[in-house]
Structure formats: C-alpha cells, structure tokens
Amino acid sequence: MILLLASMGACGKSKEEARLELARLNVAFNEESFVQSAKIGDTLAVKLFLAAGMDPDVQDKLGNTPLIVAAHAGHAETVRLLLAHNADLEARDNLLKAPPLIWAAMGGDPETIKILLARGADHAVRDKRGVTALLAAAGAGRNTVVDFLVSQGADLNSRDNNGHTALMWAAAQGHSKTIRLLLSLGSELEDRDKRGSTALHLAAESGRTDAVKVLLESGADIRARDNDGRTALMYAAADDHRDTVRFLLAKGADADARDKEGNTALDLAKSDEDVMEMLFEAEGRGSMRKK
User: Fold this and answer.
1) Are the CB atoms for 237 and 245 separated by under 8 Å?
2) Which of 106, 225, 261, 289 has its CA 20 to 30 A from that of 267?
3) How far apart (Å, rounded) are the C-alpha atoms in residues 124 and 166?
C-alpha cells in the first residue's frame, strides 16, 4: 500500500524532488540505472526517472532502451507507463537491431504483446536477421504468443534472411509443442530455406530428437534432400548427434544415401565413435531392404 501511494505521488513531484527520492531509494540518476529499473519492472523508480526529466528513450551500453528491456521481461505496467511518455516503439538495440515487439515476443508475455500492438507496433517488422515477432516467438517456444500473433494476422509463411519459417525456427530450437501448434495453424511441413533444408533437416542438425519425432509423426519426408543432396540423417551425423542418428536410423533413414559429392552420412560424421559405429553397421541395410 505504501509503495502504491508513493507510485501515485511520483508523477506530481518536481524534477528535483524526483531526483532526491531516487537518491533516497539508493538509485543512481543515470541512464544505466533507468534501463535497469525498467528491466526489473520497478515502476516507481521508472516514474521517478521520468518525473526527473530523464528521456524515455535513453540507451544502455548494449543499445537497450527502457521499453525494450521492459517488453522483453514482460513488465506490462512498466511498458504502459513508458508508452504513456511516448517511448519509441521502433527503438532498436545494438545486438539484433530488434524493436520492442520482437523482444516482447521472445519474452513471451501476451499482455505486453497486446499493449504494444494496440499502440501501433507492426507485427511484420523485422530485426537485422529478418526475424519477425512470429518467428521470434516460435524460436523461443512461446506458444500463446504464436497463437495470438497469428490471430492478429501475422504471416505464417514469413521468412527470415536465410529463408527460415516459424516452423523451422521451432524445429531448430526443439520446441515440439510449438511445432504441433504451427502445423495446426497451417504451416507447411515441407517448406525449404535457402539451403533447401526442411524443418526436419534443421531439427536433425540441432540434435533435437523430440522435434524430429514430432515432424516425422506429422508426415515429414525422411528422405528429403537439400540443395547439396543431403538428408536429415547426414545433418545429424555431421554434428555427431548420437541420439538423433539412432532415432532416424530406427525410423528407416537410408545410411547408404549419398549427397552430390558422393558422401554418405558416415563420411560426414566427425568424431563420435558411437555415431560412426551405428552408421557403419547400418550401411548396406538400405540396399538390402530395397531388394
């Protein structure tokens, strides 16, 4: 109750009074402290910074504004407060050059997403990777946000700079529930990125065995090849993902398949002895099954 009353009175303070109050709270009056206060959702401190005349769009050393960090952390009330003081919806950090909406999508708080969209944030905006809010949410496994963004018109077929769709992002990060959700919403199972990789390739490349399982159960083509003629098994073998290799072989992946340079999955395996032994034992079985 005391904090609530203090918060309500903060806006009525003069600049000097607000700075004195921050000092009393042991909060330094500088840009880094302002951003940190927003990051932890300290609405009282944020109000005092604003009342003291601090620019709502200051940046810390990483280029984060108070709105970016509050949005990422899902502090909806702090986000509302900053927007009420005209914080920039299009501000970008130094790392990803991503605006608050994309950071909010990664953070996963639906209320924050709704606030930003209501204030005019564009769900189609992209960061330097070409990632939209939907792709960011899918890559972070934020299912509620994914569902909401699609309901608001976000494009399921949008792609980042590498041609990755939301389904591919979810697959690469191993978010099985997100994969199921995206497929139920209409994502294309066999879409390909600029390398010709499918979601199955990317799940295998990352060693996300559970995601590989869900994709295969959903009808993904285990024999699909990328632009270099490589299969999901080759992707898994090339990064020594033992469990994924084992699972793909159990599901009928062809260890005898060769890419455009003539390599089998065994040829591409790096150093894991178990992976190489599994593939060595599996070679020849594919041709035997075909007879």
Assistant:
1) yes
2) 289
3) 13
Residue in 47, 52, 19 with CA at minimum distance from that of residue 66:
47
Handedness of CA 99, 105, 108, 112 (dihedral sign): positive
Rounded to whole angstroms, the Cα distance separating 192 from 220 reads: 12
Which amino acid appears at position 175 of this protein? H
Q: Choose the final residue of a domain: 155, 189, 204.
A: 155
**Could you tell me the pTM of the whole model?**
0.92
The pair of three-digit structure tokens given for residue 8, joined into one six-digit string: 């309500």
Tens of pLDDT, residues 144-179: 999 999 999 999 999 999 999 999 999 999 999 999
Tell which of 110, 137, 155 closes a domain.
155
Same domain for 110 and 2: yes
For residue 259, give its domain range: 163-291
CA of 21: how far to CAs of 11, 34, 38, 39, 47, in Å? 12, 14, 17, 20, 11
Question: pLDDT digit string (tens) for 70-89?
Answer: 999 999 999 999 999 999 99
Helix (H) or strand (E) holding 102: helix 100-107
d(CA 149, CA 145): 6
**Cβ contact 211:176 at 8 Å:** yes
Query: How many domains in the chain?
Result: 2
In the chain, the N- to C-terminal Cα span, in Å, equals 79
211 phi and psi angles, rounded to 5 deg: -65, -40
Q: Are residues 17 and 68 in the same domain?
A: yes
What is 188-229 written as a DSSP string? Answer: -TT---TTS--HHHHHHHTT-HHHHHHHHHTT--TT---TTS
Q: At what angle do helices 166-173 and 176-185 cross, to 10 degrees?
A: 160
Task: State the CATH number of the domain containing residue 83.
Answer: 1.25.40.20
Answer for the pair 285, 255: CB distance below 8 angstroms, yes or no.
yes
Task: Report how far Cα 90 is from the mean position of its chain's Cα atoms.
Answer: 19
